Amino acid sequence: EGSDLTYSQQYYKLLYDPKPGEDEETYFNRLTARDDGEDATAYKQKIMILQNLYPESSLWTNDKYKQIIETNSIDENVQQPGETKEDFYKRVYAQKPGESNDDYKK
């Protein structure tokens, strides 16, 4: 079991360590970005992994990136505080870009 953890840490470090020539802003933007198709649950899991890998990183105390993480962690299928029911339904059930009228009606 311990070796599995080591391999996991090595994998995530390869994935999330700074790339050669990557400045801090570019690096933090890459880490905090929510990937296409990544839902809020998967995003929060990625952030948890990053916090475990890099607990001393200034990323966690930087207000700009804390706000990005908070925004990207919102579950888009849940009514947000201050959002009316009407606005919630318009947002969640809106026709998506590239979605045909036939697919939207389903």
Descriptive notes:
This protein has about 110 residues and is mainly α. It folds into two domains: about 1-75, no CATH class; about 80-105, no CATH class. Helices cover about 60% and strands about 0% of the residues. It is built from six helices and no strands. It has helices at about 1-15, 25-30, 40-55, 65-70, 85-90, 100-105. The mean pLDDT is about 85.
Task: Pick out its properties.
106 residues, mainly alpha, elongated
Instruction: Give the averaged pLDDT, no decimals.
Output: 87
Unreliable stretches (pLDDT < 50, length at least 5) are none
Total beta strand runs: 0
Put simply, the count of helices is 6
Tell me the Rg in angstroms: 18 Å
In whole angstroms, the N-to-C terminal distance is 46 Å
Q: Major β-sheet, in short?
A: none
The outline comes out as elongated
Structural class: mainly alpha
Instruction: Indicate the percent of residues in helices.
Output: 55-70%
Topology order in helix (H) and strand (E) letters: HHHHHH
Write the layout of secondary structure elements.
Layout (H helix, E strand, L loop, with lengths): L1 H15 L7 H9 L7 H14 L9 H10 L12 H8 L8 H5 L1
Short description:
This protein is mainly alpha-helical and 106 residues long.
